[in-house]
Amino acid sequence: MSIAKWMNPDVAAIRPYEPGRPIEDVAREHGLAPAEICKLASNENPLGVSRLALRAMKRALPEMYLYPDGYGFELRQKLAARTGFAPGQFIFGSGSNEILEFIGHCYMGRDRSIVCSQYAFVVYKLVAQMFGSRILEVSAPTLGHDLPAMAKAIRPDTSIIFICNPNNPTGTLVTDAQVAKFMARVPEDVLVVFDEAYAEICLGKMPDTSRYLREGRNVLILRTFSKAYGMAGMRVGYAMGPAEIISALERARQPFNVNRLAQTGAVAALDDAGFLRRTRTLFRQGREMIEAACDEAGLEYQHSAANFMLIKVGDGTRVTAGLTKRGVIVRPMGGYGLPSYIRVSYGTLAENEKFISALRAETGK
Ligand SMILES: Cc1ncc(COP(=O)(O)O)c(C=O)c1O
Questions:
Q1: How many CB atoms lie under 10 A from the CB of residue 20?
Q2: How far is the CA of 5 from the centre of ligand 1 (A)?
Q3: Which residues line ligand 1 (CB under 6 A)?
Q4: What is the structure's pLDDT at 328?
Q5: Which listed residue, of 37, 162, 304, 348, carries a Cα 20 to 30 Å from 87's Cα?
Q6: Positions of CATH 3.40.640.10 in the chain
Q7: Domain covering 51-269: architecture
Q8: How many whole angstroms separate alpha carbon 10 and alpha carbon 14?
């Protein structure tokens, strides 16, 4: 007997998230050696793990028989000291994705709506679907967030607005002045979530969203160790917000959600200013290289503030498949409603070269 009748219809309707394909998977399918393949599909850090984090995690391995500190004391104290916010204004997640789910548990539901931008990070919509919130998607003719239109889209049942800045997958950035005008229009009782997964490596000027937190507004600022610090595999991210919202989110958190190794690594990574600097330099070089190659080949692209960019290639699915066979994994953008684009993450200089020559071969440009 099928148990489908018990399946939650909201969850059943979800089209699962499609991550970048793992290297091992592509190696098996195309008979390639894993070392020949470059994965430029998940906006990871091509320099690897922060060296300070790696050293600290190696040293901490023998302690792994112990549960982690569910409260994340050390990481909390360090972030509090750095940001000037109180220790009670932080919550940690197994990646910032998990925090999006806490937000869903606390502030979404069938009688509510969320506002997000067309082409914004898809997980907001997946979580809203899971919790039954209506999704008010605001069109983005220039690919970036149209903040005045988003403010206008708010309805009396809107509980949350998501601003992804820089936005994945478009790489677009909203400015300080745009955010200020927007915040002046957002009602006090709407939660504004600024997803700043790429803040530390942003190649443009990030707006200062912490100011709204200091002003006592209902905002959450999401950050992650996955990108700038090269710790995507460890799964650790955090949110800063008003103590009231943080303590609500804490109720939805499982006791040991962020593992001990990840916490150790994150604490150490925060001191690795050199790694951050090298990462930013590499991403800037990556952007220059790939933009120059696109200009030369006559391929349209979206100038990006983050470590990836959209390139218009015609048939994104076909080009992605062709690049994969050549050992370069990128992301097709059909799932985002941008079927003529691929998204490429910047790699090492050698990986970027390999991508550029494979792209030229695939597109014939
Ligand atoms: C905009 C944005 N938010 C959140 C995440 C999730 O990051 P993590 O769960 O690894 O912290 C990503 C990952 O790609 C992202 O691009």
A1: 17
A2: 33
A3: 43, 95-97, 121, 164, 168, 195, 197, 224, 226, 232, 237
A4: 97
A5: 162
A6: 51-269
A7: 3-Layer(aba) Sandwich (3.40)
A8: 7
Most informative mutation of 44, 91, 121, 231 for ligand 1 (most atoms within 8 A of CB): 121
Largest CA distance in the chain: 60
Nearest-atom number in ligand 1 for the CA of 227 is 10
Give span(s): CATH 3.90.1150.10, the chain.
Answer: 4-48+273-363
What is the dotted CATH code of the domain comprising 4-48+273-363? 3.90.1150.10
pLDDT digits (tens, 9 = 90+) for 159-170: 999 999 999 999
| pTM given for the model | 0.97
CA-to-CA distance for 205 and 226, rounded, in angstroms? 20
Low pLDDT (below 50) residues in the chain: none
Residue having the nearest C-alpha atom to atom 8 of ligand 1: 95
User: How far from the centroid of its chain's Cα atoms is residue 136's Cα?
Assistant: 20
Give just the sign of the alpha carbon dihedral 209, 210, 216, 222: positive
Residue 19, pLDDT score: 86
